[in-house]
Amino acid sequence: MTDFVHSTPGGDSAREDLQRPSALRQWMSYMRRDKKALFGLIVLGVLIFSAVFAHWLSPYDPNAMDFSMMLKPSLQHPLGTDDLGRDLLSRLLHGTQISLFVGISTVILGMSAGVTLGVVAGYFGKWVDTIIMRYVDLQWAFPNFIIAVYLVAVFGTGLANVIIAISLAYIDDFARVARGMVLTIKQEQYIAAAHTLGASDNRVMWRHILPNAMAPIIVQATVSVSYAILAEAGLSFLGLGVGSDTPTWGLILADSRSFISRAWWLGVFPGLFIMITVLSINFLGDALRDMLDVREVTDAH
Question: Fewer beta carbons under 10 A from the terminal one: N or C of the chain?
Answer without folding.
Answer: N
